[in-house]
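How a chain folds remains the central question behind the approach discussed here. In the encoding step, the backbone of a single protein was reduced to a row of integers, each denoting a local shape. We regard such an encoding as a compact summary of how the chain folds. The sequence in question and its structure tokens are set out directly beneath this paragraph:

___
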Amino acid sequence: MKLAVAQINLTVGDIAGNTDRLLAAAREAHAAGAALLLTPEMSICGYPAEDLVLRRDFCEACAAALGKIADEAPRELALIVGYPERTDDGLFNAAALLRGGRIEAVYRKHHLPNHSVFDEQRVFDSGDAPCVFSCGGVNFGLNICGDIWEPGPATRAMEAGADWLLVPNASPFHLNKERERHV
């Protein structure tokens, strides 16, 4: 089974542009023979979207974009796409499994960072359920970014049957980060 990773530069708030980039990545991955495409954390709206996710109309636009991607992406390709999910249960940093023209499953980030440039606890609620799916004969579990740094989510995914973990992540831009990484 061939897996593709979309390491693309997404723009915070540019839902239409990000949707176009994600669809282009999906078509490219499919053309290259991939069965599964992993995209970044919060890929539809860019990361971190901060207070934009508190706007109901923004989350509705993200949900509509998620539906568009599900509808227009190659049907045979499984995609993991990050987005802000607003439900009656709360507001979540989520990742959806899109396949066959529909949203097949959703994972909600469990551990929300709240340090340095991160303040996810202020805007998001925590998820607590694993998400495991099969693709190409392999059982994959989803975690999002910091979930793998803390106890619980990875273990729950493995206990639910995952053989491999897919972990979309993203980091906010800040000046001099590249220099900091090279020291």
